[in-house]
Design a protein that fits this description.
Elements: H1 4-24, H2 29-55, E1 56-58, E2 64-66, H3 69-86, H4 88-103, H5 111-123, H6 126-138, H7 142-162, H8 170-186, H9 193-216, H10 231-238
Antiparallel strand pairs: 1-2
Helix pairs in contact: 1-7, 1-8, 2-7, 2-9, 4-5, 5-7, 6-7, 6-8, 6-9
């Protein structure tokens, strides 16, 4: 059944976050800090591996060559300008604030950070994009099932240090992956392996940016760079 992968992923995020919240109550601050550092380091390498897979190709001579670099640059620049004009990062933070007020939990100072960080990590990665596309094209949700297990662990660790805001990242995940699956099903005749590779590469670069923010504090407006994922679609249509 098309869309089943996203539903399973949604439930995995809720269950993983719930378990993380249970763990959080028994951890001291120094353990929270080391968990954030561990998540940041893991996120960096997850993003780096996906980005390198899209940017580095093995030539016939056995040497590595770069590819798609200009598309990456243009996607990030144009996407960044669009995201900055729309203030997507602020909008995501405002959504987190609204959810926080609905819960009447004004004492949770990490709610917004947990919501935004977890949303970016579990939504814009290569597996989220490629898995949702495969689910929409063929009904094969194998990759999203594997992603569900990874996300279960990731959000459990995030929730144990950043709190209940992490659990609410399941909502944009449901909307985002569901939209990709539905779109892939509707435009299946226009999708090819090259476009999927472009989307995965851009998504992985954004994941790398999330890892930088986790380790070094908020240095990059990754939320404002999200429209970069759309640029390869426009590029493939016209070129």
């Amino acid at each position: 059944m098309k869309g089943l992968g996203t539903i399973v992923n949604f439930l995995a995020v809720i269950l993983g976050s719930g378990l993380g919240l249970i763990i959080k109550n028994g951890l001291k601050q120094r353990f929270h800090d080391i968990l954030i550092q561990a998540c940041g380091l893991a996120t960096l390498f997850i993003g780096l591996s996906g980005a390198m897979a899209g940017l580095m190709k093995l030539s016939d001579k056995g040497a590595f060559e770069t590819s798609n670099t200009m598309l990456l640059v243009f996607s990030l620049v144009i996407g960044g300008l669009i995201g900055e004009a729309l203030n997507l990062e602020i909008r995501m933070e405002n959504l987190g604030d609204k959810l926080k007020r609905l819960l009447k939990d004004n004492n949770d100072t990490q709610f917004v950070e947990g919501f935004v960080t977890a949303t970016l990590v579990i939504c814009v990665g290569a597996m989220a994009i490629v898995g949702s596309i495969e689910d929409g094209l063929t009904g094969d949700a194998t990759m999203l099932f594997a992603k569900s297990m990874l996300d279960f662990i990731i959000v459990m660790v995030f929730a144990s240090s950043l709190g209940i805001g992490v659990m609410f990242s399941s909502i944009p995940l449901l909307v985002y992956q569901g939209a990709i699956t539905l779109s892939a099903a509707l435009i299946s005749h226009y999708m090819d392996d090259r476009l999927i590779s472009y989307l995965s590469c851009i998504g992985s670069v954004l994941i790398f940016g999330v890892g930088i923010n986790l380790i070094f504090g908020k240095k990059l407006k990754v939320g404002n760079l999200l429209p970069a994922i759309i640029i390869p679609v426009v590029y493939s249509i016209f070129f």
